[in-house]
Fold:
Amino acid sequence: MASLVVTMSRKDLALAPQARRWKRAFRNALMVMSAGALAFVQSAQACTSFLLNTSDGGVVYGRTMEFAFHLDSEAIVTPRLFAFTATGPGGKPGLAWKAKYGAVGLNAYGGPVFTDGMNEKGLAGGILYFPDYVGYADPAKTDAAKALAPWEFLTWVLTNFATVAEVKAAVPSVSIIDIIQPGANIVPPFHYSVHDATGASIVIEPINGTLKVYDNPFGVLTNSPPFDWHLT
Structure:
């Protein structure tokens, strides 16, 4: 991927000059995502995301982050028109796109992709652990031009769409492939929570090679088993 991502270390969260217009968005997103740092539990491999309704009719997205390993996260900002190329089968280039919306959030292992984030339209989301049930697409049977790695899917969502409805309509056009993540050295078992500025919420889960999308009337997501079990 291109090298125009603004990275902010834990020691210096001052925005670079070219990203000053994102200062307010960054501060708002940082307050939301700080819930994860406050709830870190070293012995667990779990996490929970949720929506909170505000007294003025708004919604706030938050989460806990309880992985049993360090993600070496940094705050990053990606601008509009930023060029992304996903990871395809066999190390080949995957899906390519240019960001329609700027976004701000946290990464992992130094990559220009979001583990949690929010875009300029208020679409927010996170990656959560989904062990034992995840089933990604077979890379050998997937069109490289539609392929995303598990850790790239949320970034594709946040940089392309403004609402949950838009995400739901676009999900069938891509595939998340079974591939090892650099830095983690495993195929990470993920599912995804996405919320928009109206409070609409969905869950997206890779199961048996396809992406299942569920409306989330509660605005809460945890881990395994699949989300339809949690709705019963």
